[in-house]
Design brief:
This protein has eleven helices and ten strands. With about 325 residues, the protein is of the alpha/beta class. It folds into two domains: about 150 residues, D-Maltodextrin-Binding Protein, domain 2 (3-Layer(aba) Sandwich), CATH 3.40.190; about 160 residues, 3-Layer(aba) Sandwich (D-Maltodextrin-Binding Protein, domain 2), CATH 3.40.190.
Length: about 325
Amino acid sequence: MLRFRRVRFGAILICALSGCGTPDDTPKALEPPFQGEKIVVAAVGDPAILATVAPQRGEWTATRGGELTIREKPVEPQALRGVDVVLFAGDRLGDLVDVGALVVLPESVVRPPRPTVAEDGSDDQPEEESAADDLQYADVVPAYREQVSKYGSDRMGLPYGGSALVLAYNRPAFEAEANREAARKAGVTLGAPRTWKELDALARFFQGRDWDGDGSADHGIALALGRDAEGVGDATFLARAASLGQHRDQYSFLFDADTMDPRIETPPFAEALRDLVALKESGPPGGATSDAEAARAAFGKGNVAMLIDRAERASRWKGKAIGVAPLPGSERV
């Protein structure tokens, strides 16, 4: 999470730190927007994220005219005096709000401007430049865009990076007419599942079926069900449990908000674990002990219909016709 302590810096600094260049048609005679400004960047907690900012400093200074200082050591929320831009993990947002370190960002930072209306009533005049255009904010994962970066309804930061689980699927398996006909007879809808129950049904449908026509039985889904140093398995379990155990209007999930008793043994978690373990019967041999990398390798062979993995690992899937969809949810809580 990247956060600006001075709102007036917000709209342009994120572009600079992301390596956005000045448009070719920008008048060269314009004075750099941050000429004479001194801006201090720091990280709360792990300072490793600053390594991604440092390479942009030279370009930003040259195009924006300001002086950028990056603090090498991490700072705590209570010690942000003199810091203009703060990078922090999403779970530290509350700490920063508690000490009054942040201010609300205007929604105009992430919303494209409306077209300029001409005197004759037409709206075909060029739009003004917008930070939202540079940010390509609509491409950000919705959970980061509208939840992680907000405190209640207030936007308190901008996503700088993150990890999101997705469902990857073998498109030929879902699009082959023979499979579609077989799915209709089985009462299964071929398409990105909306619920975990639909995902379970798809995994069972594809398991043991020669859906790629090579004469051998194929498999439904590859998952990290064994020991997994990357934490993909744990994240998958929590995602499935969250769909059952966390109402959109209730923030309590891992612990009871009133008693602070752990909820890990309550029905949402028990049901999620049971159903997730059951998916091992719809996977390739050895799937019950697979880690994330083994699951990717199995999916990459082309005879597994689906895979749950982190989106940023897409380059390791090695498939030629892969679709990507959000993880499914639940119709009940």
